[in-house]
Amino acid sequence: MIFFLEADIFQFFGRFHSMLVHLPIGFIILAVFFELISLKKKVDLNLAISYAFLLGACFGVLSIILGLMLASDGGYNEDTITLHKWTGIIMTLLTFLLFFIKRKQSEAIWKKKGYPIIVTLVMILLFIAGHNGGNLTHGSNYLFEHAPSSIRSMAGLKPVRERVTILDSALVYEDVIHPIFESKCNVCHNNDKAKGELLLIDPKSILKGGKNGEVIVSGNALKSELYRRITLDINHKEFMPTEGRTPLTNEETVLIEWWINEGVSFDKKIIELSLTDRIKSYLQDVGIGLKKTFLESLNVAEVSPQTIDSIKLKGFKIKPIISKSTLLEASYSSYNKQELSQDKFNILLHAKDNITWLNIANANVEEELISNIGQLKNLTELRINNTNLSDDGLKQLEGLKHLEYLNIYGNPITDSSVESLQKLSGLKKLYLWKTNITEEGKLKIKDSLPDLTIFLGE
Question: What pTM value is reported for the model?
């Protein structure tokens, strides 16, 4: 008997609360669903409805018992846990009542009239209990955590601060430490569930610490309880995060150690702290200080719908490279009845700053057109394979400094184009299958561009 009164045993059984609590919810909703069907289809589902309510109530009792065991460990917001507990208890009692009413519904007028009221009340209590259970498990803002700013404002919440990822502008707490706490720690250390009476939601609560006092010693990570907990063996009973949640990565742990040793700043920029190459590398691992790609750095105005329509009328397919982007992908199919002409390409140039991907593979491209392609200075991908491209034509593409992908397979280019290809310093992928470039020429290109991968069709 003493064995079952131990606190750890209470927690062991209490953890099953989250598994069983969905059963009463499911059976109660099923009973209401059957009720709606019976009303609409005029079929007798009274027996199924009554037993669905009975099963919901029975599993509700079991969920309440397990929930009380789980809550015995403390660490929960008293107001939230009390509301969650009593709405669950009242809902379960009313569900038992619904079972008895449904079984004896025809015997009394008050039962018939009271039944729909009690069903409505049970559904309201179900949503209240479920919402507060979500608050206890995921935090009080879990419903609107990822909502658009307009919806957050309607809910009385502050707009989400856009995280800064540029090293020179990012704040050490807001952009590095707070996101780590939010993703790995605050499920158990929020306003509704504060394990060890510790909150990690804002500077004030972090500095206050938990029931045993401060958890961070400014300037000394090794003497900080928080750092000790996150660096314990994962099987240690004091290891954080608890309850089998995803541990901090090595990079996240080192960054917290660095932040503590640097004085636990809440308002300084990262560059105001001591930065080593190791810390810079770890900051990149959590998204701070990563160099933007060329496409990410582009900021061009949207092309007007009229211009898009005029380009499409010339036989081009044109669309954003990703949804809602102002950057465009253009292509001209070789199956078009009319060949790609200078006149058609001149219309495409009306959107030259926005076009970053161009596909004119297998089209009959006239020599004078190639110089126009060279005007698309923001091109990162060009498919111009099987177009009879010559060495002189390729030379006109030397100005495409941001080109990363180039497919020129099936064209009669020779080693005379090697120098032109070497000037495309941004190239990452180059398709040379069925060209007249020799093995020596390919080696010269590769030596000049070590990050380049050349595809030869093998």
Answer: 0.50
